[in-house]
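Quick one:
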Amino acid sequence: MNCFATISTVSHLHKVEALFQSLGELCDGQNISFCCWCIDMDESKQTTLPIVGQDEIRKNETANQVFQKYSKNLDRIRWSLKPIMISQLLNNHDKVIYLDNDTIFFNDPSFLFDELVEHNILLTPHHYPHNPKKNQNWLEANFKVGLYNAGFIGVNRSAKHIMEWWADCCLYRCEKSLIRGLFDDQKYLDLIPVIHPNTKILEHKGCNVAGWNVDVCKRVKQEDGSVLIDNKWLLVFVHFNGFSVRSIIQDKDPLLKPYLDKYVRALQVFRPELELDELWHENTLWDRIKLSAWRLLDRFKK
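Output:
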């Protein structure tokens, strides 16, 4: 059996509901299960989701160490638990695909499990812009933030040891540090194709579509209103994190607006009071300061 998995807090379970519903509709009749680890839910809370709560998660020794080390930061706990969850699920599943909970599917993803027949690991590039002649801050972001997005990874049993390695990395340090060359759990993924050559870097640009790849993964509107990527790839799943939603709202990624509207409606099924503004925010003052400093240093170097 194959499995889709995600990790959440109680406050974001409506996103898990929408994600699993989209997968259930598209994968109906397939031998696929779903699993969510909820890091701040105790076993007494009632839910229809296939959830593992904190008490059960912490029975895993490495997971318990993660909770202890990052006890003041729920994000670091979530990020560091990804490889532990995948590794544990591989004890009972042939293939596991992990997704961040702010993802939703619009087309059949079953081919992703097919890719895990010949390859042990699947990664999706960020597809950041990489032009050395303009907007070079994006070129540099590839090396600061990481080549691959940690909001998606597919693994089969033959790569379980790589998940254990990734878990040890996250337990070592899960932090943003330019000096150390780290970016939370994500930068470690850059090493995986090197230490495990049977890794597939997905060429399908309709996977993990997000605001940061609007320039490289061109959206092309079809006559029926749907969107193809590079006029070739079906839009399989979109990563609707705050950056992606902000890009759509600010008209930097306008062709994804109908997909965002559909996503909001899917979320409102499980949380009727939800408003679009909850899914995004303006760039923080710190973000603007960092970009201004980068531009100033760039002019100085020239």
